Amino acid sequence: MNTDTHTAPKPLAVITGASSGIGAATARTLSALGHPLLLLARRVVRIEALGLPDTLTRSVDVTDAEAVAGAVREAEALYGPADLIVNNAGVMLLGEVARQPADEWERMFDVNVRGLLHGVRAVLPGMIERGRGTVINVSSVAGRRTYAHHTVYSGSKFAVHGMSESLREEVAGHGVRVVTIAPGAVETELLSHTTDEAVKAEYQAFKDSIEVLAPEDVAAAIGFAYQQPQRVTLRELVLAATAQVA
Ligand code: NDP
């Protein structure tokens, strides 16, 4: 019988948008699994309040490619190569295209699409070189079908689905896994940034009418996907509250 209880240290996991909601819950989950973490978001005080061990926290806007890459380099120098990135940072500004300010469209594509690519690029060359790694992209059920007032948000999440699928084909031969997580409604701060008060109230009423997912539910799905053997890729996980109809 092997009585050696020593286990190898767990590799570095990077999470964007770790200051609230799904990102913060995922940070807790991966930390509990023993991973050192690089946690990124603009509100660094909120990340520090999580009080997680072996964690480097950096105030980074994911639309700044060099800031993302620099933080990853810094964390890798401390904890070794990143084996996982959870590209979770995102914004949802619901509205109608005829009335919505164009800068809201730009922000959604900047953060949800360009920002996600910056995360991918910061870790992917190293993963390819090492012949292993996992990229988990947080999309949405709105990346698979459309909903009222979700036109531009949905467009950004369809982009996440499409790019994730294509990226998976690009890196499959290098041993790198690409996983798309597509949650239905989750109880987080996401809706609070929508500026159209009528649209916000309508979506809030929908959220209040059912028991939506908790951030921890999505974090558990992310942990489950990552913990599969490296030869197994859960290509897409779609999860929603049982009571969510569409
Ligand atoms: P939250 O608003 O609670 O969290 C969003 C996170 O993204 C925050 O940590 C925020 O940090 C970060 N973020 C936003 N903009 C930037 C930026 N420019 N640079 C760096 N970080 C940024 O919402 P959720 O937890 O719900 O959202 C997480 C992901 O889940 C998003 O991609 C969202 O689209 C997706 N999702 C959410 C669903 C839901 O119903 N809640 C359903 C399906 C998908 P900070 O402001 O400190 O920078």
Task: Give an account of the 3D structure.
InterPro entries: NAD(P)-bd_dom_sf, Sc_DH/Rdtase_CS, SDR_fam. Pfam families: adh_short. Its EC number is 1.-.-.-. This protein has 246 residues and is of the alpha/beta class. It has a single domain, classed as NAD(P)-binding Rossmann-like Domain (Rossmann fold, 3-Layer(aba) Sandwich). Helix content is 44%, strand content 16%. A 7-stranded parallel sheet has the order 3-2-1-4-5-6-7, with helices on both faces. Helix 1 (21-32) links the parallel strand 1 (12-16) and strand 2 (37-41). Helix 1 (21-32) packs across helix 7 (215-227), helix 3 (65-79) packs parallel to helix 4 (102-130) and helix 4 (102-130) packs parallel to helix 5 (151-171). The mean pLDDT is 97. The structure holds NADPH dihydro-nicotinamide-adenine-dinucleotide phosphate (NDP). Residues 16-23, 41-43, 61-63, 88-92, 111, 115, 138, 140, 183, 185-186, 188-190, 215 line the site of NADPH dihydro-nicotinamide-adenine-dinucleotide phosphate.
Spell out the key features of this protein.
Rossmann fold, alpha/beta, 7 helices, 44% helix, globular, 246 residues, binds NADPH dihydro-nicotinamide-adenine-dinucleotide phosphate
